[in-house]
Design brief:
Length: about 55
């Protein structure tokens, strides 16, 4: 195999490894969001994004 071919193979292996990590990172993000959601269920925000607490304004 020529040098350029070897470089291409190595580049493809690196890209393949990076692409394999993406689903794992995405699954971790979803897992963390699901874990945080119950904790945030009592948080109410105004349209401007300010916390209202229990006032319900």
């Amino acid at each position: 195999m020529a040098v350029s071919g070897a470089r291409k193979v190595k580049s493809l292996k690196v890209e393949n490894a990076r692409l394999k990590e993406l689903p794992a990172e995405s699954m971790f993000d979803v897992s963390m969001l699901r874990e945080m959601l119950p904790r945030m269920s009592d948080v109410r925000l105004t349209r401007k994004g300010r916390y209202l607490g229990d006032r319900g304004d």
